[in-house]
Amino acid sequence: MTVVVTGVAGFIGSHVARALLARGVRVVGIDNLNDYYDVQLKRDRLGDIAHPHFAFHQTDFADHAALEAALRGVEIETIVHLGAQPGVRYSLVNPRAYVQSNLSGHLNMLEIARHHGVRQMLYASSSSVYGMNKSLPFRVSDRVDHPISLYAATKKADELMSETYAHLFRIPLTGLRFFTVYGRWGRPDMAVWGFVERVLAGQPITVYNQGQMRRDFTHINDIVAGILAAIDTPVMDDGAEKAGGSISPHRLFNIGNNQSEELMKLISVIENACGRKAQIDFQPLQPGDVLETYADISAISQELGFTPSTPIEMGVPDFVDWYRSYKGL
Predict the structure, then answer these.
(1) Which residue among 8, 85, 210, 325 sits deepest, i.e. has the most Cβ atoms within 10 Å of its Cβ?
(2) pLDDT digits (tens, 9 = 90+) for 62-88
(3) Cα gap 106→123, rounded to integer Å
(4) Of 51, 71, 53, which is closest to residue 61 (Cα–Cα)?
(5) Cα 8 from Cα 55, distance rounded (Å)
(6) Do 134 and 143 form a contact (C-beta atoms < 8 A)?
(7) Mean per-residue pLDDT, 277-302
(8) Strand 261-262 to strand 214-215: parallel, antiparallel, or no bridges (unpaired)?
(9) DSSP 3-state assignment of 279?
(10) Strand, coil or helix: what is 262?
(11) Nearest 10 degrees: Cα torsion 136, 141, 145, 150
(12) DSSP code per residue over 112-158
């Protein structure tokens, strides 16, 4: 069995690759190692994955010719498409990067799934698709027609393209709407990493909207558990309505902690884990930011038995311990 993991040098992708390899699965990893954040961190993740059953291709999946060449002759059972251009605020600065990676790249992966006759493909969506939805918690049945960032718009477009391919070519597809993932080997552009880095360095942290924001912070261990559960139970092409409303073999799941935490509570937990107080620089709400996220996980819980088990009181200290070790502090 061979599983292709895109974004394998990324945060979630590297964890998924390690988990699959631990199961005895052969993994082919795809990543272009771009410089959106520190490339050395990506190389270090790859070094941590190193395994006889792991093959890595430094390839841009938005380049269809290069992608097809990298995967030529590979008998692919499952695709876990986690690669993307992430970040809400960066989409205001470099919008074309999102079109190339998240739109053209997603289409290329759908074409690989189609022509390789894969058993299934899972792909990363985002809680950002919910925009300023006032109905909490966010349900996969909610309408998501009003994205407030280009990043969110591209993720919604990925879901629409996937629905089309599931309908036309009967490819079993699962879209995973991730909610604020954090943990070991995380991303420097995310709040938990940035706050911990600056608190430990004695530098001020920037907090938007006077801290009046809430997020469903989800630990990487829970995210990986949900992805593995989805891999183990592919969506059926049985004409029944799926999570998200499709009658094609395409379902959508929220993967979150099912707990919306106040941003100031997160900062308090970080202060306790770091053993020092944060200096806070309050700033206005930024364009594209949402005020609150909160995942209704009933669909994935009922279908796959998914139950998150890592509150921030456990997950944040674990990240701080890893961060100190990784940075040699």
Answers:
(1) 8
(2) 999 999 999 999 999 999 999 999 988
(3) 9
(4) 71
(5) 10
(6) no
(7) 91
(8) antiparallel
(9) coil
(10) strand
(11) 70
(12) HHHHHT-SEEEEEEEGGGGTT--SSSB-TTS-----SSHHHHHHHHH
| CA distance to 95, 210, 234, 265, 309, per residue, from 186 (Å) | 23, 25, 28, 20, 18
Residues 23-53: pLDDT tens digits? 999 999 999 999 999 999 999 999 999 999 9
> What is the reported pLDDT for 194?
96
Identity (one letter) of the amino acid at 23? Answer: R
Instruction: Give the list of residues 6+ apart from residue 123 with CB closer than 8 angstroms, or none.
Output: 79, 80, 81, 82, 106, 109, 158, 162, 173, 174, 175, 176
Q: Please give the DSSP secondary-structure letter assigned to residue 240.
A: P
Give mean pLDDT, residues 191-216: 94
**How many whole angstroms separate alpha carbon 259 and alpha carbon 252?**
19
For 292-308, the DSSP string reads: B--B--HHHHHHH----
Asked whether the predicted pLDDT for residue 288 surpasses 90, the reply is no
- Among the residues of the chain, which ranges form H helices? 11-22, 39-49, 64-71, 90-93, 95-98, 105-116, 150-169, 191-200, 220-232, 263-274, 298-304, 312-327
Which residue is associated with the tokens 């959106």? 36
Based on C-alpha coordinates, what's the Rg of the chain?
19
